Amino acid sequence: MTVKYTREHEWIRIEGDTATVGITFYAQEQLGDVVFVELPDPDTSADQGSEVAVVESVKAASDIYAPVTGTIIESNEELSDRPELVNEDPENDGWFFKMQLSDPTELDDLLDEADYQAFIQEEL
Amino acid sequence: MTALHSLTLESFHQSIGAKFAPFAGYRMPIQYPLGVKGEHLHTRDAVGLFDVSHMGQLLIQGPASTEALERLVPAALQEMTPGQIRYSQLTLDTGGILDDLMLTRWDTDIWGLVVNGACKHADMAHFKAHLPDAVNMTYIDDHALIAIQGPQARQALSRIIPEAQDLLFMRSLKTSWKGCDITLSCCGYTGEDGYEVSIANDQARDFAEALTDLDETTWVGLGARNSLRLETGLCLYGNDLTPDTTPIEADLLWSIQKRRRTEGGFLGAETILKQINEGAPRKRVGLAPMDGRTPLRDHTVLKNAAGDVVGEITSGGFGPTHNGPVSMGYVTQKLSTLGTELIAEVRGKALACTVCDPIFVQQRYRRSL
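^ Those are the sequences you sent over. The predicted structure of the assembly is below.
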């Protein structure tokens, strides 16, 4: 199992040819209290970098991008009733969707944990 | 781009962990460590403290200044008693709104005004252009303005300013705190009971610390100030009120007293009185998504069933006390009836919504003891 990160503050946990996607602890901290999540429908395909979900906090709406190309296989329905899970447990129970990967080589473009930590230090 | 101004209390806000963002030309506290939602809920439950020193405090005085001001605002000023506050708008000759403001009558021809921070320089130019030479305008830029808002504001503030105890909504008085002259006004923009205190810059830090020491209080940034006013149906200048909206379209007829509705005599009266009598082409309303969940944000386009554009959300977001989406916007008069179903275009998708009362959370002003 590998976890990678995007510069848009998503994490992607890869298990075989499927992956779970959510937003990072840092991202939820920047967003503030999450009040609404719009999730993608299963069986829709998504290109790397395309807008697939929306997370709304008390402050604003932010797009969530597909970290890699693939097909959405499941959305975290729990977030419809409990959007606060994104704040409480962003990197586990607060996951957004699962994908079937089309091209695993795209993962090479993403950041590993150390690179991501260095990246957010630069942003701060 | 000119440099941002700093609030007198900037270092104080920094010391308690504020995050800042530019607003109205100032570096403003947008939130504190408690966060927007926590600050909002604390204000509804106890007391929120707000530094609103970016707002413009003006003093207007001189012979016949009351009559002169009445030519610029649709509120009836001549009937007001000393210490009374009224909410009004600076109107344009088109009937549009240059700014909205609070006016306090101190004496026959002495007026204290509080105008929006983002508009204050334009407002001052407007006053200079329209007030007679004998009427004098002073910009009070050496005073901070602190709002103390919430259901426990009265009990909390009374411990350090006893005059707060019996001061009713839209009344103001001059008193002192630790020997320093202050203006204490019972008003605000959260929909709650509360006050605004004007105090000299050099006393502001001591006062801020004294307020912080009160058990009921927490500091609240502009983020929660926005959700608090939005939930209680209060307009934000620049979003809900603009040079292209009239007070009648904005559903602010209540702020135009009877005499002015018939006499007119203010900028834009021709348009505004005509709209009072014949109706306005569009009206400010509340809007709620039928799914009960999706926030309808600023600039969301509203359509009718046929797909024609019939309005726009001017302020929208999530209301922590309402615990759901809260929005206001303008729709054509015909579609402004409560319960009318419309389509909101959210990220390219059609979302059903209904016209509702823009007051999602009841205002709780203290109008009697």
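Residues 201-213 of chain B form the longest helix (13 residues). The CA atoms of residues 47 and 150 of chain B lie 4 Å apart.

Shout if you want it in another format.
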